Amino acid sequence: MIRKLNEADRIPLMTLLHKDPALNLFIIGDVENFGFEQDFMELWGEMDEPDGRFKAVMLRFYGSFLPYAEGPFDVEGFAELVRKSGKAEMLSGSSHVIEKFRQVLECKSEKQMFFAELKEMNQQIRAAAATPGEFQIAKLHDVEAICSLTDLIEEFSGSSANSRQTLHKALESKTGRTYFAEKEGEVVATASTAAENSMSAMIIAVATHPENRGQGLATQLVARLSADVLEEGKSLCIFYNNPQAGLIYKKLGFTDIGTWSMLYI
C-alpha cells in the first residue's frame, strides 16, 4: 500500500533512509529542513503490511521525483503518482531503483553518473584550501548571474528550467551554499552544495565558463567548499560523469560508492 506521509511517519521513514544515508541524502535533508507540510514537496511511502515498516519511499521536490527502495516495490504505483502530479520534470535516484521505471514512464532523455563520497580530504589539498582565495559566497542577488553561467553548460541542459528557483530556495533556506569566482564582473566558475543536513551535503553544479577552463578554478572552489563542510563534521557526496573530473575528485579524497540515474520527463 502506497500512501502520502506526514509528521507521524518521521521515525519509521528515517529508519529506512538511514540504512543508506549517502544515497538518501536528498530525502533526509529535505525532511530535516522542511518537514512534511510544504506545497513544493511531498512524500509517499509503501508499507510492508506484516510489520508496518516502509520498504519504499518517493519524494517530490518541485518537479523532481526521487524514489528509494531496499528491494522489490510497487513500481507502477509510484509511476502513477508521477504521471498524475502534472509537475514531473525529472526522476532521479540510485540506478538500480531508477532502471525499474524505464518501462513504465515515457522519458525524453536519460543520464547516468558516478556517485562518490568524501569523508576525509587529502590533507595537503585541505591545508591549501584553507588559504583565502579569490572566491565569493553567493547571496540571493547572485542567483541570476550564477545561473546564467550554468545555462551555458551542456551537462545542465536538462535541469535549467527550475535552476533559479532551486538555487534561490537553497540559499534562502540555508539548505545549500554556493561559492563562485568572478572575472571582469562575470561569474566564471561556481560550485554548490544541496540538501545539507545534520550528517552530510551534496556538491552540485560544479561549472566553469568554457573560455576559462584549464585554470583550476572549479577545483579550487570544490576544495574550499569541501574543507568548509568537513570542518562542520559533515561528509560530502558528488555526482560526475566525466572521467577527468573523477580523477580530480579522487585526488581530493572522494571514493566511488555507486551510480545515479536521471530520467528527464
Automatic annotation (TrEMBL):
Pfam families associated with the record: Acetyltransf_7 (PF13508)
Limits of the N-acetyltransferase domain: 138-265
InterPro entries named among the record's database cross-references: Acyl_CoA_acyltransferase, GNAT_dom
MF terms (GO), sorted A to Z: acyltransferase activity, transferring groups other than amino-acyl groups
Protein name: N-acetyltransferase domain-containing protein
